[in-house]
Amino acid sequence: MPIYNQLSQNLNEIHDQMRAACGRSGRSPSDVRLIAVTKYAEWPWVEALSSLHQAFGENRPQQLAERQVLLPQIEWHLIGQLQRNKVKLALQHACVIHSIDSLRLLERVAAVATELQIRPRVLLEANLSQEAAKSGFHAEGLRRDWSQIVSFSKAVQIDGFMTMAAESHDPEEARPVFRSLRMLRDELQQTAASRNAGLDLCELSMGMSGDFIPAIEEGATIVRIGSRIFSGLGTF
After folding, report:
1. Contact 216/223 with Cβ under 8 angstroms?
2. Nearest to 46 by CA among 73, 19, 28, 83
3. Which residues does the chain have with pLDDT short of 50?
């Protein structure tokens, strides 16, 4: 019960902050989903959380697959980097893949999805903070290759974009990155390629424990929060 109570308290506080951020930006709280990031969480915490929340995110395909089998009622999202040799495993266990970071990976996902006779939901990872250590499409690359990217939408459902801002103690420093992704999404929505393929690109996965408030205010539809959810339970 202490674990359950701590998780419930943490979730309530996060949802209060999410609702307040939606209110400030004139949005409905139903417009934003919380993905609970469980990558460093101990298994008893994950089990307890499953009775309170139904959408989890994992960074590694192998751990996602193992945990998805144990909690099949949960909606599992792959939010970490995906290697081409792990594509089949990810497609078999993930509800949404947030981290399609290159044309080469998108092509591989489309090919494996066709073999499996599924049409998976994916998000394109955008590296708008220009950090060399981060993977993802740069804005100019998305614009340049957009028609080719859209050509894979028959095999893969491209729902939108994901990004991560640079780490900072000040959440406001992340705001320009989130705003840039929203504006880039709006731009790509209006292209002939998107219109012809029927893409609405409705999802923006952006904002984590330290910066989810400005992310929501700038248009996030998905926030990925881990340490804030498990705060008070031990080292995370």
Report:
1. yes
2. 73
3. none
User: What pLDDT score does 130 carry?
Assistant: 75
Give the span between the Cα atoms of 29 and 140, in whole angstroms: 32
CA distance between the termini of the chain: 19
Q: Which two tokens stand for residue 69?
A: 């089998």
* Distance in angstroms (rounded) separating the CA atoms of residues 181 and 203: 11
Quote the tokens at residue 122.
Answer: 């994916």
Cβ(105)–Cβ(123) below 8 Å: no
- Amino acid type, 73: Q
Give me the pLDDT at residue 153, please. Answer: 97
Nearest to 91, CA basis, from 116, 68, 74: 116
- Token representation of residue 175: 């705001």
Hey, how many other C-beta atoms are within 10 angstroms of the C-beta on 95? 14
Domain 2-225: what homologous superfamily? Alanine racemase (3.20.20.10)
Q: How far apart are CA 199 and CA 216, in angstroms?
A: 22
Dihedral sign from CA coordinates of 93, 98, 101, 103? positive
Helices 175-189 and 139-150: angle between axes, nearest 10 degrees: 30
In 79-206, where does DSSP find H-type helix? 87-93, 103-116, 139-150, 175-189, 192-197
Residue 9 and residue 137: Cα distance in Å, rounded? 37
Rounded distance, CA 65 to CA 23, Å? 37
Record the pTM: 0.95
pLDDT reported for residue 117: 98
Give me the residue label for tokens 């099949």. Answer: 72
